[in-house]
Structure formats: C-alpha cells, structure tokens
Write a structure and sequence with these properties.
This protein has 413 residues and is of the alpha/beta class. The protein folds into three domains: 2-41 and 63-112 and 243-310, FAD/NAD(P)-binding domain; 115-240, FAD/NAD(P)-binding domain (3-Layer(bba) Sandwich); 329-405, FAD/NAD-linked reductase, C-terminal dimerisation domain (Enolase-like, domain 1, 2-Layer Sandwich). It contains ten helices and 25 strands. It has a five-stranded parallel sheet with strand order 3-2-1-7-19. Strands 9-16-10-11-12 form a five-stranded parallel sheet, covered by helices on one side. The chain has a five-stranded antiparallel sheet with strand order 21-22-25-24-23, sandwiched between helices. Bound molecules: flavin-adenine dinucleotide. Residues 9-15, 34-37, 44-45, 47-48, 81-82, 108-111, 129-130, 156, 245, 248, 277-279, 294-297, 299, 323-325 line the site of flavin-adenine dinucleotide.
C-alpha cells in the first residue's frame, strides 16, 4: 500500500497530540509537523500558573522533545509558518516558499491573543500571555514590577493576577469592561467564589471601565481609563480573549464560522483537510450544536479523533466538556452543563472554599462546578453518562456517598 503523506500545520498541543495519534494509527505514514513557534510542542495551562509563579520549570510544559519526535519518524519544521494551502495540488507553501505535498492535511493553528487598539499599546512592559516566550518576557517584567494592571477579568487575566500577587507581591488592579469576573465563562457561584478569593488576597477590581490609552516615555507609566481615571503602572497584561487563527483556512476557501467548521470526525468542508483544537468550531455529539472551546481537553482529545479519522478510523467526537483553573492555590473545575436555567444543589464540605455545586436537569445530574473538591468531578462525569438515583437533599449532604448512588447498569450513550 502506498505511504500516506500527513501534514500537520500548528505545533501546539493539538498538532502534537494528532501527530502522536497518527503514528499509533499508521506505522508507515509520513508525518510532517510544521509550527511557527521555535519551541518543541508544549502545553499552555501552566504558563499563567506554575511557570509564571516559578513553581514549575519552563521546560516542564514540553509534550515531546524533538529527538523523541524524530525517533517516532515524525518530521518537524519549527519556527516556520505555512503561508498558503494549494487545495488543487494538495500542497502547503511554507514561508520560505518550499511546497510540501499532502494526502491528508490537519490545521491545528489555535488562536492568537486579542489586543487593544489604543494609543501607547506598543510601550515597553505591556504584555499578553499566549506563548512560552510571552510567559518568559512577562516573568522578566514582573521581577521589578510594583504596580500591575490586568485588563480583562477572564480566566487568563485572573490567573496572571493571582500568580503575580503570590510570587512577586505586586499591587494588582484588574480593569474589566463588564460588571464582574468570568462573565462569559462560568456560573454565578464560581464567579462570586473567585471574586471573593481575589479580593481577600488584595486584588483590586475596577468594573464597567476600560482602557482609553497607555502613557509613558518608551516604557509604560500610566493607564488612562475610559472613565478618566489614571492608574500608575509598571506593567500591564492584556487578557481580553483570543481570535481563532483561521486566516490560512479562509484563504483556502474552507468554511469558517468563528473557527474552522468541522464535523464530528474533525473533517472540514474540504475532503482530506481536517482541523483540530482551539481553532475548530466542532461537533461534539454530547453537546449537539457545534461549539468552539478554548480548552486543554479539546486540544488533547478532539485532535486524537481527527488524527484517527485521517488514518481511516472514523469514531465520532463525543465528550462531556471539562475545564479547570487554579488561582491562589485553589482549584476550580467545571464539567457538563452549568447553564443559568438548571436547578443547583450545593454540597459544602468546608465553607465556601471546599464545595461542589451540582446542576440538575429535571432531577438528572447534568453538570457541576467544584471548588477544591475535584474528586466529585470524576463521579459527576460517571453520573452524566450512567445516571444517578439521588435526591437533592442527599446531593447536598456531604456524608452521603455519591458513588453508591450511581446507576449500576449504565444507560448506553
Ligand atoms: C495562558 C493559558 C492558560 C490556559 N489555561 C487553561 C486551563 O487551565 N485549562 C484549560 O482547559 N485550558 C487552558 N488553556 C487553553 C488551552 O491551553 C488551549 O485551548 C490549547 O493550548 C489549544 O491548543 P491548540 O494546539 O489548539 O492551539 P495552540 O496551542 O494555539 O497551538 C497552535 C500553534 O499553531 C501555530 N500556528 C498558527 N498558524 C500557523 C501557521 N500558519 N503555520 C505554522 N504554525 C502555525 C501557532 O504558532 C501555535 O504554536 C490555557 C491557555 C493559555 C494561553
């Protein structure tokens, strides 16, 4: 059988996981991994946590070293970008004009950090946090930072605020255009627990305000807010979300809708071209409607599904969404459905900072949020899959053993 040429664009978590899964699925295939960043493939979650806090080494985020990939006959081109996909000739064009042929192509191009288009945004000590290089540059700036302003109270902004407070003891002010933290991404219970935690650790919040300009003489000195308020600052981190990196796909005429549109196997609107990870608007059978998720879980698992489909093993992506964040030494997790219309039942183990809130849909466990009680998340995943015979009163009672209430004969999913 002729050797299949697999080309992967994007050397992040999804691209690397797909390359490893392809090697597993096709021992003879030619696998080429092309990444614009010069580092070996790495995971990003620790960048705003352990690595920024100095409790984890930068190299600890690397998934596979280049020699390990070479041993698996995975060819890597790092520090190189793919500039064009020639669909007609099934080739990609690199930034040095070389052309590489593909039989199956995977786009795992992730996202880029959203920036602020205001005067002074290019001053020194204004950062965003997307890459390992961003993290190292930010750590450098924070060494001599007394006053840090974080723009945006999303997960990354808040993790940076916590890590900067914990490691560098900076005075931290978080400026947020909305009226509270984590507005797009979390249920009320989690939002208030996180906001209270930050306030109790000295983080100062300015809500319903935004940045109108940055001032300084080559180096940042002041942040001028839309309200007219002036903040003295040594360093700024802009954490206002990401933009999916779809430009390559758009130029190639692939269907894009706030992400590269793929089916439950990871295939795009163009046969033999697949996409994976954070850049995708993908079908997850558990959720029904197509979705785009900025999560470790999607980069890890949806990429494996796409790789298997590229090698001919078609198994639909079907996963209960899960996400975590660590802030000020506390672990918060979300799983399944946690929408505002669902009934909530909170089980308190030890005050506000050790509890689980269960989200019920017509008495059935549909999701949960945990605060330092991650063990419940594994049980909730089982409960969503298999069902759980339990009353809200029993759910709320920390002495009740949840596991014993799982349905014995799993409901086929
Ligand atoms: C600071 C931070 C903290 C996070 N914390 C958490 C967390 O606690 N929990 C959680 O679940 N998720 C977290 N996430 C989200 C999670 O890490 C991402 O969803 C995941 O990294 C996405 O992986 P990816 O491979 O799809 O995309 P990316 O990691 O963005 O990788 C895409 C790669 O493709 C490259 N590329 C783009 N275009 C081209 C091109 N034309 N040619 C060649 N290469 C190209 C890019 O340079 C990049 O290296 C965090 C993310 C960040 C940034």
């Amino acid at each position: 059988m002729a050797q299949c040429n697999y080309v992967i664009v994007g050397g992040g978590q999804a691209g690397c996981r797909a390359a490893l899964a392809l090697r597993d699925a096709d021992r003879n295939g030619k696998i080429v991994l092309i990444g614009a960043e010069s580092h070996p493939p790495y995971e990003r979650p620790a960048l705003s946590k352990g690595v920024l806090k100095g409790s984890a080494l930068p190299q600890s985020v690397i998934i596979r070293q280049l020699d390990q990939l070479a041993e698996m006959a995975i060819e890597t081109h790092l520090g190189q970008a793919v500039e064009q996909i020639d669909v007609a000739s099934s080739e990609v064009v690199l930034d040095d004009s070389r052309r590489l042929k593909f039989d199956r192509l995977l786009l795992a191009t992730g996202s880029r950090a959203r920036s602020l288009s205001v005067p002074g945004v290019n001053l020194l000590n204004i950062h965003s946090l997307r890459t390992l290089d961003d993290c190292l540059a930010l750590s450098e700036s924070l060494q001599s930072c007394q006053k840090l302003v974080v723009v945006g109270a999303g997960f990354i902004g808040l993790e940076v605020a916590a890590s900067a407070r914990e490691r560098f003891g900076c005075q931290v002010t978080v400026v947020e255009a909305g009226s509270g933290v984590l507005q797009r991404a979390a249920p009320d219970e989690l939002r208030s627990a996180v906001q209270t935690l930050h306030k109790s650790n000295g983080v100062h919040f300015l809500f319903n305000d935004g940045v109108s300009r940055f001032e300084g003489d080559s180096k940042l000195e002041h942040v001028i807010l839309a309200s007219g308020r002036v903040l003295k600052a040594d360093c700024v981190v802009i954490g206002i979300g990401v933009i999916p990196e779809t430009r390559l796909a758009e130029r190639a005429g692939l269907e894009v809708d706030d992400g590269i549109v793929v089916d439950e196997f990871g295939e795009t609107s163009q046969p033999n071209i697949f996409a994976a990870g954070e850049v995708t608007r993908h079908k997850n059978l558990f959720l029904g409607a197509p979705t785009r998720r900025e999560s470790w879980q999607v980069a890890q698992n949806q990429s494996t599904i796409a790789a298997h489909a590229m090698s001919g093993l078609r198994k639909a992506y079907n996963e209960i969404p899960w996400f975590w964040t660590d802030q000020f030494g506390h672990n918060f997790q979300l799983i399944g459905e946690t929408g505002p219309t669902l009934q909530r039942v909170t089980r308190i183990y030890d005050g506000a900072l050790k509890s689980t809130t269960f989200f019920l849909d017509k008495q059935a466990v549909a999701g949960a949020q945990s605060v330092n009680s991650g063990k419940d998340i594994r049980l909730v995943r089982e409960a969503i899959r298999r069902g759980m015979n339990i009353t809200p009163e029993q759910l709320a009672d920390p002495t009740v053993n949840l596991k014993s209430h799982l349905v014995r004969d799993p409901v086929l999913w």
